[in-house]
Amino acid sequence: MTAIATHLSPDGDRYFDGMADKFADSLYGRRRGELRLALLDRLLPEMLSLDGQMALDVGGGLGQLSGWLADRGHAVTLCEPAVDMLQRARESLVDARVTSLPLPLQALPERLPGPWSLITCHAVLEWMADPRAAFATLARLLAPQGQLSLMVFNRDALRFSNVVKGNLDRVLEDRLAGQGRRKRLTPISPLRHGEILEWAEENGLVVTHCAGVRIFHDYLQHPLDSDEAYRKLLELEWRHSRAEPHWRLGRYLLYTLVPANSEESLP
After folding, report:
1. Inter-residue contact 120 to 56 (CB < 8 Å)
2. How far is the C-alpha of 257 from the C-alpha of 81, rounded, in Å?
3. What are phi and psi of 239, to 5 degrees?
4. How far apart are the first and last CA of the chain?
5. Does the structure show a pLDDT above 70 at 264?
6. Which of 210, 204, 213, 249 is nearest to 35 (CA)?
7. Which among 155, 170, 248, 262 is placed 20 to 30 Å from 185, CA to CA?
8. Distance CA 54, CA 37 (A)
C-alpha cells in the first residue's frame, strides 16, 4: 500500500515546503488569485491607516503583500517558514525594502517581539492546528496604537460551496476541513466570523473594518470567458465586498483589528 503523504508539522500545523509552484500556478496564476489581489489593492487603503510605518508580514508566502506594502513606503519584515516560497519571495522582491526571514508564527514573540505598528497576517490562521493561540500571539506583538490586518478562510463559505457542488453528505456531517494531505489546499482550520469576534474580545482588540473577498467568484457555474466578464465581476465584488449580507459569504474574511483603547484614533 502506498503511504499517504502529509504536510503537517509536529504541532499539527499545515506547512508548504515544496509547494511554491502549486501556489504560484494554482492560485495566483488563475483568475481567483488575480481577483483576490485586485480586491485587496482596493480594500486595504480604505481599511488601514497607511503612513509608512514598519510592517510585519506574517506567513507572507510568495511576497505579494510585502511587495504591495513596500511600494507604498513601508519597511517590511516578511516571515515565511516554507523555504522554497521564501526564496521565490526574495527573488521577486530583490529591489524592494523588504527583509525576509524563515520564521513560523510561533517563533515571532522571541525573535521579533516588536511591538509592531502594522501586522499583516493573510490566509495563515486557517492552516494552524490552534488558530486561537495563533491569534493571541499576533495580539501580543501589536503596538498599543497598532493595526492588525487579518484575512482568514471562511468556514461558512466553504459550507455553501460544498452544497453548490453537491457534497451534501460532507456538509451534513460537517466534514469541511482539509486533512493536510498531499498538495490539497483545503484549510485544516477554516474559521467563522463569530470566532474572530470572540478571540478579539479575549485579547483586548476590536474590529474596526471587515470585508468579504471573492464573494461571488467561487460560486460561478461557468468560468469567466473574457477579460470583459472579469472586469464586470471585479466591479460586482467591489460593490458588495462590505455590504450585508454578501460580505459574510466571501471565500476570505478580511479584518482590521486594533487595541480597544485606540479605536477612536482610526478612521
Report:
1. yes
2. 24
3. -60, -35
4. 58
5. no
6. 213
7. 248
8. 21
- Please compute, for residue 130, the number of CA atoms within 13 A of its CA located in the half-sphere on the CB side: 10
What SS3 state is found at 267?
A: coil
Instruction: Pinpoint the alpha helices (H) of the chain.
Output: 20-22, 31-47, 64-71, 83-92, 108-111, 131-141, 155-164, 168-172, 193-202, 227-240
Return d(Cα 240, Cα 87) in angstroms, integer: 36
The amino acid at 177: A
Domain boundaries, the chain: 20-258
**Residue bearing cell 506583538:** 141
CB contact set of 4 (below 8 Å; sequence gap of 6+): 181, 182
Q: Measured between alpha carbons, how far is 169 from 262 in angstroms, rounded to an integer?
A: 45
pTM for the structure as a whole: 0.90
- Burial 182-199, CB ≥16 within 10 A → b, else e: eeeebbbbbbebebbbeb
The residue with cell 496564476 is 29
Q: Which CATH number fits domain 20-258: 3.40.50.150, 3.40.50.720, 3.40.50.300, 3.40.50.280?
A: 3.40.50.150
pLDDT in tens, 146-176: 999 999 999 999 999 999 999 999 999 999 9
d(CA 188, CA 211): 22
CB 218: neighbour CB atoms within 10 A?
A: 17
